[in-house]
Amino acid sequence: MLTSGAYAFHPTQSDKKKFARQSERKIPIAYNVDVVVVGGSTAGVAAAVEASRAGAKVFLAAQEPYLGEDVCGTFRLWTKDKSISNTKLGAAIWSEGLPSQLKVKKTLDDALINNNISFLYSCFVTDILTNKTGTPAGVVMANRSGRQAIVAKSIIDATPRGLVARMAGAEFGNYPAGKQNFKFTVVGNKLKKASNLSARIHEEPVQIGFKSSGSANDGSFQKANIQYKAIEYSMQINMKDGSWASFAEAEQIARDRTWDADQVESSDLLFQNPPDKMVGQKRWNNEKVDLERINIGVFQPRKTENIYVLSGSASLSEKAAETLLAPGKMIRIGERIGHEAAHVASFSTVPEQLRIKGDSSLKVEPGDVGEFLEGLRPLLNLGEVVSEETTLPVLGEYDVVVLGGGTAGAPAGVGAAQNGARTLVIDYMHGLGGMGTIGMIGRYFHGYREGYTNIVDKGVKDMGPDHPRKKGNLGEWVFDWKTEYFRREIRGSGGEIWFGTIGCGAFVDNNQVKGIVVATPNGRGVVLGHSIIDSTGSADIAIVAGASYSYTDGKSVAVQGAGVPFKNPNDFYNNTDWTFINDSDMLDVWRVMVVAKDKFEEQYDIGKIPQTRERRRMIGDFTISVLDVYNERTYPDSISLHKSSFDTHGFTEDPFFSLKPPEHGGIDVYAYVPFRALLPKGLEGIAVTGLGASAHRDAMPVIRMQPCLQNQGYAIGWAAAIASQQDKNIRYIDIKALQKELVRIGSLPESVLSDTDNYPPPIEKIQEAVKTVVQDLDGLETILWDQEKGIKALTDAFHKTQNEEHRLTYARILGMLGVEDGWEVLIKAIHSFDDWDEGWNFTGMGQFGPSISYLDSLIIAVGRTKKTEALPAIFRLMDKLTPECHFSHFRAVAIALESINDQSAAEPLYKLLEMPGVRGHTMPDIQTAKRLEPKFKNDVSTRNNSLRELILARALFKCGDFNSEGYQILSEYSKDLRGHYYRHASGILESSTYLQKQDRD
Ligand SMILES: Cc1cc2nc3c(=O)[nH]c(=O)nc-3n(C[C@H](O)[C@H](O)[C@H](O)COP(=O)(O)OP(=O)(O)OC[C@H]3O[C@@H](n4cnc5c(N)ncnc54)[C@H](O)[C@@H]3O)c2cc1C
Q1: CA distance linking residue 898 with residue 953, whole number of Å
Q2: In this predicted model, which residue has the larger pLDDT, 1 or 595?
Q3: What is the pLDDT of residues 859-873, one digit of tens each?
Q4: Core-most of 42, 217, 473, 886, by most CB within 10 Å?
């Protein structure tokens, strides 16, 4: 019988088990290949390479954010077995001795790339596709882009526990309840002795060649010669059963038993030789394995076609499996299976009449599953497969479920658990703390550090009170200490934690979010919660549940710089800013993770999550604007206090900042976040924290600091616990009672208890500001806060004043807001410039203050008046632009011309694009992405070049195009691997009336 993922581990569906309904839907096909490899183990990669060499088209889906999960994930890198060098891959990894994590990961990446094999990271298999005869014909995977299908003639199941084979109905032994043996490796720790632990200290230490300087801007790395002892612990853990909850708990127990303050690194994954082996076409009972002669039938499930099980779950004796699971050993079997799978595929017909079988016969919880089903990118979809109506098993029921145990999510878990809620925290990484730990940002930048954050900071220091690694500064921490601190706090209060589990859908009943759909290494299922906290930082669950959101689209390409850091054990702060990343776009994540390994080639490792500052923000009951922040808006329902500068990491978009740029980085602004900004409009039972909250992108830099988000997370956790205790939807809790608690612990000042909304500003204040604004724009924030009244007062003042300078100030502000009255004054002002003033280039790191010049702002303002009379003035300055000129001038011209939208602007824009070096900066494939990425840690050149090309092309296209150049460039960027450029370019093309007209014609 075919089964949806998590059923594979629940063969008996007792009455007590609950199920959730999933309606029929269409799953987009992302790849159509001969061979799909599920799992990124070394053997899986070897199989993919060999299949490709044998002529097959191959796709590989890795579950971890890197390849080599069998050795890097389990930290089983040590081997003395010289025979593994008999395989090309084994030799490339091990021939020079103990490899670094990066060496393994990069060697495997390169092996696939050099053989033209497509692959993705962080993908969890969820279902099996079948063809017209009911035979397995591919898989469905879940990742942060949603779910996609891969059609394949042969499937190589390189998951550690044979998940694909189980879903295809293969027979397996029962997972024995009781004590089971696992291995877990830690680096740097003291040797521990306990009856339930036995240890092996690896003779060869982990060797580090570089040390992080800890500086955000420093491009160099300090050479070092540091060694850390690695200990592999073997331990017995009591397993209730083979469910995912049991495995997730076992990982926590391994961490409980092995952590100490010396730890600089640990395994992501528990290692186990699976006790519940598959029933194969053949059985290998011998202890020894002859890699060349062992029958491939041992790796093929009985009575199931097209599947090879390339793991310790194959039909092997325990000893033989032990041998094959030694580092590098399975590579040769992978090669043989890859070859065989390609051969079988070569005479198989293309799978037809594909379906994903469902079972709708069970009694279900009312509701349905919401998920992303647009494909990796809609343009790349190769069709769709019908997924029949079905049921998903309920994997657990909690008062509070927190998805994303990051900066805000881990404290949310603590807040809920400490307030008595049955709490589950889920993350697809193997540690808590998100950007502040796994993300390598182990240092605060500004931020309101009172209240719960103060408790965290002290608690983290107390993880090693007299330890030499303890950071003297309260605003810095040891990576391993903070992640462990949160883990203990949650578990200590009875909370549960599931690592290595991705949230990929919402279970919703009439706008009530009742649960999270998760994909686990044991398959897919639903976790029900009275209250759901979406702490993914990207509002993953709120959006699939139906919330609207804002992000890069056809209108906007303003993105804060992002990066992937290098990581050596013991590093805690490697802050990068060298690209843009959409971390919900798996192609982009793949691109950046591959390229980062080239960039930091000599380091021990790279980070596991992209460092993204710009994320999807859901639209809440209230959206915080730049001027709410600037005017220090107060609310009756403030839930967290935020403090920072406008650290914009790029250019801003809000008209206010185009006139009055944010102050220097040293100057802090305070901002409250009201509870309503965390509640997605139209949804019940869910709150969103952190970077996914409802705010304008230009306001987010003040709101995003870790100390403040920790306080926010804790507050929401507390709120969710109250909601479940009182059986209320979280939206309707007594906010004053919550505020009192937050005031008590110092997270909020007492004034919030009596605060009212101070918006809108009184008209007298606006009128007064209209007078003062002529002096260095003093009071502009008041005028623009209530734009309707502000514009009226400004227009009156513009027409009344006789002072030329004042008229220009009013005209510039009005123009920026799209009011035409001052257009002649603006043109005159532009004419007074013989040449361009000092502009701005995309700097990323260290970007404070203006991102356009004064002349840029005049040009944008006149453009927004839409007056064609302004064109000659703009064209005159365009003639003076050279490729060396600042980016902001190109942007100003593009914005202005696009607003005026006159065909006569097309040719001048075309000429700008034809200047040497302006064209040709797309990254359509991984080879180009690798070639174009400079080694410098925080390089900005690729971004400046691409942004300029894209922004000019967009204006050209919108002005009617010239020689179809604008269309051509946008089409190229709509296939760019970098997700934000893709979104912007394809968004413009999709919304264009030009294209819609062509379609009609
Ligand atoms: C490069 C960079 C430098 C920064 N520098 C500083 C600084 O110096 N000081 C400072 O205070 N702040 C800094 N910030 C800001 C701050 O770190 C972030 O704003 C903050 O950490 C975001 O918190 P969050 O909880 O929203 O997201 P995160 O901390 O990113 O947490 C999100 C969590 O959700 C998990 N997750 C996401 N999606 C899923 C899913 N579908 N399923 C399962 N798990 C999921 C992730 O693994 C992660 O653990 C920086 C940010 C960046 C990117």
Answers
A1: 10
A2: 595
A3: 999 999 999 999 999
A4: 42
Sign of CA dihedral 336, 340, 346, 350: negative
23: number of Cβ within 10 Å: 13
Task: Kindly report the protein residue whose alpha carbon is nearest to atom 13 of ligand 1.
Answer: 705
Give the model's confidence band at 219: pLDDT under 50 very low, under 70 low, under 90 confident, else very high: low
Closest CA to 112 of 152, 65, 57: 57
Confidence of residue 1001 (pLDDT cuts 50, 70, 90): very low
Q: Say if residue 971 is exposed, middle or buried (CB neighbours under 10 Å; 0-12, 13-18, 19+).
A: middle
Query: 786 pLDDT band (50/70/90 cuts)?
Result: very high
pLDDT in tens, 291-335: 999 999 999 999 998 999 999 999 999 999 999 999 999 999 999
Identify the three-state secondary structure at position 339.
helix
What atom of ligand 1 comes closest to residue 445's alpha carbon? 9
Question: pLDDT tens across 224-278, in order?
Answer: 889 999 999 999 999 999 999 999 999 999 999 999 999 999 999 999 999 999 9
pLDDT average, residue stretch 916-940: 91
Asked if residue 506 lies in contact with residue 370, where contact means CB atoms within 8 angstroms, the answer is yes
Using CA atoms, how far residue 98 sits from 79, 95, 877, in Å, is 8, 8, 60
| Alpha carbon of 646 to ligand 1 centroid (Å) | 17
Q: Which residues have CB under 8 Å from 635's CB, separation 6+?
A: 622, 672, 674, 676, 755, 757
How many whole angstroms separate alpha carbon 558 and alpha carbon 652? 7
pLDDT tens figures, 5-23: 555 555 444 546 899 999 9
644 CA closest ligand 1 atom index = 11
pTM equals 0.97
Cα of 55 from ligand 1 centre, angstroms: 42
- Substitution candidate for ligand 1 out of 144, 424, 426, 441 with most atoms within 8 A of CB: 441
Q: Whose CA is nearest to atom 38 of ligand 1?
A: 536
Of the candidates 697, 694, 610, the residue with the CA atom closest to the CA atom of residue 651:
697
CA-closest candidate to residue 607, choices 438, 405, 483, 477:
438
Nearest CA to ligand 1 atom 23: 407
Which amino acid appears at position 77 of this protein? L
Per-residue pLDDT tens digits for 50-71: 999 999 999 999 999 999 999 9
Q: How many CB atoms lie within 10 A of CB 834?
A: 8
Q: Give the dihedral sign, CA 584/587/593/596.
A: negative
Q: Which of 449, 536, 574 to mutate to test the pocket of ligand 1 (most atoms within 8 A of CB)?
A: 536
What is the CB < 6 Å shell around ligand 1?
144, 403-409, 426-429, 434-436, 439, 441, 443-445, 447, 502-503, 535-537, 540, 575, 609, 611-613, 690-691, 704-706, 709
Residue 342 φ then ψ, to 5°: -65, -40
How is residue 74 written in tokens?
Answer: 């389990």
Distance CA 855, CA 838 (A): 9
- Predicted local distance difference test score (pLDDT) of residue 939: 80
- Which residue's CA lies nearest to atom 4 of ligand 1? 441
pLDDT at 849: 80
Partnered with residue 531 across adjacent β-strands are 400
> What is the overall mean pLDDT for the chain?
95
Q: How far is the CA of 483 from the centre of ligand 1 (A)?
A: 13
Q: How far is the CA of 439 from the centre of ligand 1 (A)?
A: 7
Identify whether the C-beta of residue 502 lies closer than 8 Å to the C-beta of residue 144.
yes
